[in-house]
Amino acid sequence: MRSSPLPRMSRRGRVTIGVLIGVFVLFTLLGWGVNAWTDWLWFEEVRYTQVFTGVLATRLLLFLVIGLGMAVIIAGNLWLAHRVRPQLRPHSAEQATLERYRMLLSPRLGTWIALTSAVIGLFAGLSAQSRWSQWLLFRNGGSFGVKDPEFGVDVGFYVFQLPFWRYLLGVGFTTVVLALLGALAVHYIFGGVRLQGVGDRMTNAARAHLSSLVAVFVLLKAIAYVLDQRAMLLEYNEGAKLYGAGYADINALLPAKEILAWIAVVVAVAIIVFSNAWMRNLVWPGIALALLGVSAVAIGGIYPWAVQTFEVKPSARDKEAPYIERSIKATRAAFGLADTKSKGYAANNLVPPASLATDTSVVQNVRLLDPQLVSETYTQLQQVRGFYDFGPKLDIDRYAVGGKTSDYVVGVREINYGELTPQQSNWINRHTVYTHGYGLVAAPANQVCGNGTPFFVSGFLGGATKEEVQACTSPSEQIPAQQPRIYYGERMEADDYAIVGQTGDRDVEFDKPTSSGGEQYYTYTGEGGVEIGSFPRRLLYAIKEQESNFLLSEAVNDKSKLLYVRNPRDRVEKVAPFLTLDGDPYPAVVNGRVLWIVDGYTTAATYPYAERVNLQAETADELTGRGTFQLARENVNYIRNSVKATVDAYDGTVKLYAFDDSDPVLKAWNKAFGGELVLPKGDIPPELAEHFRYPADMFKVQRNLLARFHVTDPGDFYSGQDFWQVPNAPDAPDGGVKQPPYYLFTQFPGQEGPRFQLTSAVTPNRRENLAALISGSYVNGRPQLEVLELPDQTRISGPVQVHQQMTNNGDIRQQLNLLSSGQSQVQYGNLLSLPFGDGMLYVEPVYVKSNSQNAFPQLQRVLLSYGDGGSYVVLANNLSDGIKQLVEQGKRAPGGAPPPSSGGTNPPPSASPPVLNGELAQAAGRVQSAITEVKAAQASGDFERYGRALKALDEAMAAFQEAQTAANPSPAPGASGSPPASPPASPSSSPTPNG
Description:
Layout: H1 11-46, H2 49-83, H3 93-105, H4 109-129, H5 132-140, H6 155-189, H7 204-231, E1 236-237, E2 242-243, H8 247-277, H9 283-312, H10 316-319, H11 321-334, E3 341-344, H12 374-382, E4 388-389, E5 395-401, E6 404-412, E7 414-415, H13 427-433, E8 437-438, E9 440-444, E10 447-449, E11 485-486, E12 498-501, E13 509-513, E14 519-522, E15 530-531, H14 535-545, H15 549-552, E16 560-563, H16 568-575, E17 580-581, E18 586-590, E19 593-604, E20 613-614, H17 615-619, E21 635-636, E22 638-648, E23 654-658, H18 664-672, H19 686-689, H20 696-709, H21 714-719, E24 724-725, E25 742-746, E26 755-764, E27 772-779, E28 782-789, H22 799-808, H23 810-819, E29 824-828, E30 832-836, E31 839-850, E32 858-866, E33 872-876, H24 879-892, H25 918-940, H26 943-967, E34 991-993
Parallel strand pairs: 3-28
Antiparallel strand pairs: 1-2, 4-7, 5-6, 6-9, 8-11, 10-34, 12-16, 13-14, 15-16, 17-19, 18-19, 19-22, 20-21, 22-23, 24-26, 25-26, 26-27, 27-28, 29-31, 30-31, 31-32, 32-33
Helix pairs in contact: 1-2, 1-14, 2-4, 2-5, 2-6, 5-6, 5-18, 6-7, 7-8, 8-9, 25-26
């Protein structure tokens, strides 16, 4: 009985489906077209259209070539399978069942083949277009000038060629498998392959067709074995716990891969010969395929495993030594560690030297302001309006003010759209009135005012209230910006666009408060922004932003411009999508303009024998997500800080400067986009270069690798006994977050003068004493890593230990408890590790933040320690006093030995306590009364009362010291002479150097 054909869809159903498909395609194409057009206009604004056209053309090329190529191959095999179908088919139940499918397919077989091939080609093309970066490197990559240690092949092959060859091989496998499955299905439906009936189960034509596809698959496998030999240098070596081929790989797996490649070629030939030219059956081809599978298991699996288990493991240290050495050399070269300068530092002086009091290179430059903690202080004292914001973390830079170069804590006063009131947040205000921030605010990092607030030398205070000007300020702005308006900043989100330009006869953009208490308005005159004056442009962006006000609002006129992509990091990322950007852009005033500086990295993941790391994991620390961007999860084994990018905060101009002009990866990318995308290093203005700093994320990666790869002897590396680790944040040792590196303007032993450098302490693996200090800086414009390594058996404590020893000291703990009363809390700043005088000086600022509303941290004390971390410890009102107390402790130590008391605030237990005579008792009562008044004033939030209370407390403390000295004219060794109770310092109107 003949089967009935499948029912056909009605005309109405076909029309409905067609309309739905048409609407879907229309909106998809409309959305793509709008995004493409607006992207073109944006790239035209920033003058980087070669990036837009280059990436778009490459994606279209790969989409068409790969998609069309796969579609043609699939269609050709499907057509061939139908073309060689048998004209006569034996009668069977199977064939009767298949007849209905043949009746469905045969009338429109070409359409079905074209549709199937088009769908496959579409997905293949979409996948291929995402490989645009691999193709551009494949086409434009050059030589590294370095050859791999096994095959003698230039590293450029692994970085530029191998990834795309492996992708093409994967495309080949996918195409052959899909063609084989499709051809098999067509052969089966049309009788070329049968499961029932008499005679052969496969026609000669079907056998030839399918066996040829299988042979092509096996030949591709042979090519894969050849490429796998090169890729072995990139894989993880379990024996050495490093990346790169090890002993078993080189001596067992490598020859196995070569043997398997030849076996695959023989099997492919055997399949063709035995299936078609000789025996014309599938028995021997099946045996050949089984032989290939058995060989892959035995030769490529069992044999290398046996070598690894029975030959390598019993003597892995010796067997793997040459390959460990390869990994060490490759890793140090790939991550820029090869030129690291290492120097021993005995750190055998445990007594504070007298030179601390007269030093001008280290002590005077100690950074007291913590850029994370004082962000709240900047916001409260320099905010001016509630919608201005400095972000959760400020930045560190250096400036020459008054002929002296030092580091400064800098922040940009930006618009925070999240802080606008509901009235201010309507569309007109949000996008046409509140368009920009105003000014860069800076304060020297080693100075504070008497009340513990920054000494601002840059920024405006116009319109500030009396409470907001409690911080002392320099009489004139010493870091002036000719154009202080901030239209592009880190606080800008993706939807924070601004419509600027001439909007009528008056200025409508809020600019800044005036000194008389009014408000100044402004009209943007910069070159940045996309012109949206014409109706087509307004319609275009109305669709893009899904906002009708672009068409309806009178705020948009024929001279309006649209500013968008306003975050400097996003802006550089869009201009240079091939760069990995540092998570901490920073502002700088260069030639009177505020510029954002963004460090750009070129990376690779296929450098032979180099260690592979995950950037997100390696760069995470206490500050990640708190003012610094978290990097994406990207596995790399090569990195260079090859680009310094700048974004003008006023007009959004983006410039890319080649910083490492010898980097082959950067050369390939520059060539891919016409050779003029990145400006040469010689074009970097000297004024800009003065503000370059060692990038934080790259330093973290290098520091973490140096924790292991400072060991260059293969045997010692294998044992791992001299490995280091990055300590946790000192004030949160159990929090599991790493201590961030910190910028300092200081001089380390062996350096000719103070440098602006990024520094980090490391400790021995699973121990907390100090192992080394690692610093990164620029010397004559070139990056320089330096390691100051302490002896293995050092007594010097690490950051976590020092913090605990200082804060757990009995006398100091008493004072800290007083500072952190019920109305306030203590916050700790950066714990700085400073080598000085053949010993170690630790400095940790102590901030106090009241629990009252709108309170901010104020620097009130400084913790200092010298030597092993526990013997010489002081808690001082400021750095100068702390240094004096440390020096006095050092002088009083008998024979240079540690003093019996480590607190530096009270006499040791063996000494007689001071006699509370009438004057001493009276002075003590006065101190206690002053402390009570300070607490009450602090709780009330009255700044004037708080200032008077602090002044009275200072006077009471001075009187008590005089009375105590009179009662005990000869203090015990180790006593610092500080009063037993030390409330917050008294305010003054002038800055105090070094706190």
